[in-house]
């Protein structure tokens, strides 16, 4: 089977509070994650979302941020828009010709399953190529509203066959 890419789709426009960060290196991801955790712990956010949804946002942020630094590079930027329905997470890098590719037929112990996790936790997701930049995004639910448009468009990860005696 050939490699399947993340769905190509424009970054949605979402109204809400906008937070953004520069990610110069991998060690910055944990600092930004801590800042994001503090922002979503504020009563204005925490009362309009569930703890599971906030944990999901932090996990998706970490997966997309590390992917942007590992596979994209250059000037990596993170943007989060907090709305009443949830969050839009947009990670951009300077590798517009390298789309995100979910792992298929890989042993999960070898890693590379982050995009599958992002797909499972998101209401919608995709990537967009812009001049000089790639944007990989995900919309995550607040946990308090019904989830619409939840669909698995990413191939299911499959572990290799284990021979039986």
Automatic annotation (TrEMBL):
Classification via InterPro entries: Anti-sigma-factor_SerPK (IPR050267), HATPase_C_sf (IPR036890), HATPase_dom (IPR003594)
Domain of life the protein comes from: Bacteria
Record domain Histidine kinase/HSP90-like ATPase: where: 48-139
GO molecular function term, any single one: protein serine/threonine kinase activity
Protein's name according to its UniProt entry: Anti-sigma regulatory factor (Ser/Thr protein kinase)
Pfam family, one: HATPase_c_2
Swiss-Prot/TrEMBL keywords: Kinase, Serine/threonine-protein kinase, Transferase
């Amino acid at each position: 089977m050939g490699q399947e890419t993340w769905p190509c789709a424009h970054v949605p426009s979402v109204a809400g509070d906008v937070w953004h960060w520069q990610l110069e290196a991998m060690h910055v991801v944990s600092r930004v994650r801590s800042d994001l955790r503090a922002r979503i712990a504020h009563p204005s956010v925490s009362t309009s979302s569930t703890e599971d949804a906030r944990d999901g946002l932090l996990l998706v942020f970490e997966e997309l941020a590390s992917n942007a630094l590992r596979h994209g590079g250059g000037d990596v930027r993170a943007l989060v828009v907090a709305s009443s329905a949830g969050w839009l997470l947009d990670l951009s890098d300077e590798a517009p010709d390298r789309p995100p590719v979910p792992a298929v037929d890989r042993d999960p112990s070898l890693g590379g399953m982050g995009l599958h996790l992002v797909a499972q936790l998101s209401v919608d997701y995709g990537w967009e190529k812009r001049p000089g930049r790639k944007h990989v995004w995900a919309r995550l639910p607040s946990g308090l509203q019904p989830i619409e448009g939840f669909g698995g468009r990413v191939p299911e990860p499959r572990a290799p066959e284990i021979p039986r005696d």
